[in-house]
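Deviations from the work plan: none for this task. Representative record:
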Amino acid sequence: MSASSSLPRGRHPIATGLGENKRPDPTWIFVLLAALVIEVILTLLGGYGANLGCALLGLFGVAILLGRFRIREAALRAGGRYSDWRFRARRIAVIVAASGWILGLVNVFFVAKEWTR
Amino acid sequence: MRRRLLGAVSTALVFAVTTLGVVSSPTSAQTSVPDTNGSECRELRAGDRIDAVVLVDESQSMREWPSVTEQVRNGIRVVIDRLDDLSDQGITVRLSIIGFGSEGSARAILPLSDVAAVAPRSAELQAAYNPDNPRTDYRAGLAGVQEQLRGSTANCRILLWFTDGIFDVGPNNKDSQDAPRALEGVCGGEDPLAGWFALNNVQSYVIVTNEWNVAKWESEFANTFGILAASLSVMQAVTGDDLRDATRRGEDEREVFQIASGASYRIDPACAPFLASRSSTGEIRLDPGDLDDIFDVLISKVVGDTFATEKCPVELSGPVDSDPMPDGLLLSSLRVYNLNGPETDLTVTAMVDGQPERELVLDRTRVDGEQLRDLPGGWQVRVEGGASKEVCISYPEPRPIDNGTVDLEIAGSSREPFEANASTINFSIDWTQVDLFAQAQAEGRDLGDLISQFGLEPGEGEEGWTTSDNLDDVSSQLALRPTRSGDFDQVELWVEVNTGVGTERVPVLGRISPPVSVNAPAGAPSMTCSNQDGQPAANPAQEYAFNGGETPTITFESEITCIIEPPDADTATISLDPQDVVNPDDFDMLGVELVSADGAPLDDIELEAGAAPIEVRLVMAGPLDNRTWKTGGTLMLNVKWRDFTQSQAFDLQVDLVKRSDQGTALLATLIIGLLAALVSLAVFRLMNSFVKIPPPDNFFVRSADVRITVDAGGSPVVQFLDLDQLDNPSIVSAERSGLDLRADRFAIHRVLPSFFRPFGPVTTRLGGPSVVLSSPAEREDRGPGSFSQLILLGADVTADSDLSAINGRVAILHPRRWIPDSNDLQEDTRRMAPRFMQTVRAVQEATPVSEGANAEPISNAREQDPVAPSGPPRRPAGGDPTLPTPPRRTDAPGPPRTPTTGPDDSDGPPMPPRRPR
């Protein structure tokens, strides 16, 4: 390749240390955690409305939020400088989302109990 | 406020000195005061007393909006804080908190207690508020308030009633019977609750805690069964507040006022009289918002005009006398301040009518109250000496009184079980058993009412308390006459205790030892009952039960039969009365009725002497047509003859609240869970579709032709045919940015994770030459979904290609603002060569040889790129082409399967060894 170019040449940007590495964006993990906390509160609050809301949030809301997290994560990874946390962000997000989903399912049971009265 | 209180006491005392020559004590003497004692919630002074009850609605609607629950809890805190402030100013304040909800389910969250002692528990009491009842029974709540304030002798009695809803006790949400029940339960009957509140001048305030519900009232219930009018009428009757009085309406109350001033609303005639009879009125307030603000108004009404002492002691210029004190009342101390003269001139004298005056010993300027202990009731204290002085009289704090239990011993009886007929039984009581009197003569005490319970009634004449009302004696005689048959082992007594600053009614449980068995007197009618199966009860005294004693949880029918023999003389009356029931109306609504043997309904029956025995039946009229009942209690079939009543109790417990089916619920949960899982997978799939691969404008592509040969050792060797080709970068393009890339002869397509494995990474399918590998790589035939640099190595290989020399092409997608090093690229390509050769070999071996097969390029791509020059994909038949298979042609041995030129870096970005710079 021509040596006359003014552009930097040599190794990959990560290897050359050009620019800073991108860490995972915690925003959507926090949103997922907030959704989980809301679910816990709604479950403790009890009542048909709260159970139904918790079920919908748990079964569908967290799926959408997890998907949103993955879009953001893919965008960061595409930048080529992605550097994950020691405990992988994707794993954290999946664990939180799965917890929310299970809690939503528990609330489905509470709602179903009311339906069967 | 404290200074104002002290000032008021000072003013009052000076006024008394100048007019009467005596000084009134801050606390007027109070003895036993009946229920009808009026209270006056104004001009309260230090030493005065307030009894306040907070009545909180615990129906479920109070938690529909969390703000309402918080508003009530906040209200409890504000009340406690404000009343505690009053307590600090010398006013003795007691507080009770009553919760009410479903039929008859009032509960004392806090019995009447000293607010100063309760204040530290404010948070606990707030948390105890639990709106969990399906109904709203005003009657139960108001009866609970009445129970707390019954016998209160406080100067001021206050009710603060938090609610958001309208009366509702029936099985349905709103019933046609709700309005008459509310009106009859509060404003009707012989002794109406509203009348009691008016007669006792309970300063009552209703705080409608949620504007939303008022709008709901108006929109939903204004014309439904008249329940809105009934509820507001009840509130007005209890508070004395005439909502139609527009002059008192503020901005906050406009909505209530609008309802009340509407043409469709009028105060029910049953409740109207209680508005006119009030000497002072409370208020109905809507949505108070800041409860502190509303309590500013309420408390100012209570103590706003209160004269307060600026300080204690009180300035005096003449001799000081106390009022005659109640029996046994003790001053804690008497102290003289600001004496204008020598202490030796002071003389403090105690006086009692009929006894010589007694000079009390002064310790400098203080008199110890212990000197007054042995004085009989009615004593006074006089302080003389000094040109001017200030005197402070301290009273003892009312000490909490423990409920007690005393033994009632049958006078003249042995310890054997006592059997009696309907004649009077004499008991003796040793009051020293009760802790109430541990401090002898510390307080006055009087015998109070007896509760007519357990069938032992205080009779007339010699019956009842037979000794002096003054309990200075440690023992009393009590005569009780049984009015019912049965076994009696306890009786509830009340003792009124004068604490010096008021009267406490203290319940004392009397244990009858040994128990008394009371038989019916001779000639009385007899009653024999049988359960549903027709069998008589083994023990006539035992309780019969509907439904075989089981609490039914489904609709049921049941019946109990009794045969009543007539009396020998006179006439007996038979009646059916509910007792200890959650709601007396429930039995009517459940359809329990008294019928004759032929099924005709019976009201009160008179059974004359000499008549034939009659058979009566208690029946459930039919299966219940709803599933919301939960009630219980005892029905008493009473046969009253003369003044003796023979009773038979029938227990009826009903719990027909709809049950949930746990198994069905679990099944439904599983089905919904499966459906939800599919929907969730679809959602994930949808969200994955938004994940993009890097766009083309991130990259340039540089490419060059290569030849891959095999050296003597069997290792693949990559030769770049013309390195100058790398000096000419070309543009990377895309048909759909983020979904595909076109670079030189190569094509890259985004591949989403499978539907059932949505958490997998987004990858790329590589196309163009028939066999393509990438570095980094996601799998053997997949590139990564995201990358900052990508090296592609590809070649068109046919089934019979000579693998010893393959012509291929290599391309590198690199960031636009960076030029890759050709040495690095060559090194990276060499490291890919073994894997490439391995792939080509495996694919070729898996490809069947057929006519013309050498013209068809083989492919490692699962789906050939449609724009790739190598044509449509060909999938080797007979299995996964990536799996190695035995060599088909022994004359063309391939290179070793393990790379010899370096490690395979297919799982990460290219990291070639550093080249010399």
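The two ends of chain A are 78 Å apart (CA to CA).
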